[in-house]
Amino acid sequence: MQKDKKIKPVPEPTIKRLPVYLHYLNKARLEGVINISAPTIAGELKLDPTQVVKDLSFTGIKGRTKIGYNIYELIHYLEEYLGFNKTNNAFLVGAGNLGSALMAYQAGQSLGLKILAAFDISADRIGEKTGQVNVLHMNNFGEMVKRLNVSIGILTTPEHVAQEMAEKMIACRIKAIWNLTPAYLKLPENIIVQNTSMYSNVAVLLKRLEESDVVI
Amino acid sequence: MQKDKKIKPVPEPTIKRLPVYLHYLNKARLEGVINISAPTIAGELKLDPTQVVKDLSFTGIKGRTKIGYNIYELIHYLEEYLGFNKTNNAFLVGAGNLGSALMAYQAGQSLGLKILAAFDISADRIGEKTGQVNVLHMNNFGEMVKRLNVSIGILTTPEHVAQEMAEKMIACRIKAIWNLTPAYLKLPENIIVQNTSMYSNVAVLLKRLEESDVVI
DNA sequence: AATATTTAAAGAAAATTTTCTTTATAAGAA
DNA sequence: TTCTTATAAAGAAAATTTTCTTTAAATATT
User: For residue A13, what pLDDT band results from cuts at 50, 70 and 90?
Assistant: First the structure.
């Protein structure tokens, strides 16, 4: 348990907002914006201006009073901080609809991840090519991980094989798994798992809708 | 600004965890579990036991010392609380890969939402049927909303038409939008928008991976 | 040049959320 | 029965995150 180092941790909510800023800034840049202030960003994204300042300060960028931030510089700092400028190679397991959606997604624009290949066990999917990405048989997974030195796996299988495939992934030295299945994965402590639960989002939506109905 | 009523608001983190409990409990139930304690749930999902107790208490359920909760009762309370037992009808706009994934998803198991129909503008998608759900032309959206009295829209279009389609949805009296595109939607205050950003999840994953690399 | 205004930055305060502590209760064991 | 133990419940404390306040700097205006 080493936690002596006083590297103040970045709040997770901040980490989640940073890509939202980045996305917005890229759009603004295309519209010709050169300098942009925190209050402007906050106004657009309906956030508190001081929160935007604080969030951005984590990337190390400095703004100028009365001018704001240089948008190119800010984008650079954000990409650098988030690691979106590095190529973070990933393999995708489960080339169904959701998997295909992700492959198509990143074909268009950098999601920070680069899906080098997809894997499946269903014969009729293997050999397909979805938006630049080849679908290979899961049998080749281990070899390909070694060959391309990939450490991130994206899990988009049906739920009932999720645990099994996750285990196969880490047996092949995958270190971090982005789990888009509803399954709760039981894996060793040292494996990083990022769960993206559709359920949770639906739950929040329904609760807010319910609240709004009550308060007429 | 009415906020005199002391209806203590349920923490959003709690709302997001509740469907995770529900999902786990349904699995446990199939394995024959009758009674289950908060520490057991916490152990399985790697959470703090008291947090589980506190979360569950929001649903109004009462547990029994030394026994825990009756699993059927607990599932019932959760479904009731989350509104997952009611049929929450929704229309989906954008029948691409991601849209199809969601349609396929809910075909299998109740996500709390029932997608009654999907809409698109691409001629070759219209008439298709993905997992029980018909794909109709967006021109019919308004009429169908009125006919089936739907108030929830799921947005899975390409980003560049997201704003436009969202506006079309609310013009047709949709009240809540689950936005799965990266677009930040500018809509009237009274519209409920739930953003599910893939970017944010990637960002958290990459940061955690980076941290783990540093601390060898 | 002087002044007013905008804004980033830093720190304090407030709000929220999680974790810890205590208490009460009921089940099982002795 | 009596004692021990597991657990929910309730409240307190701690940690985290957001919002508020103050300060300082730099630009634009007069």
Answer: very high
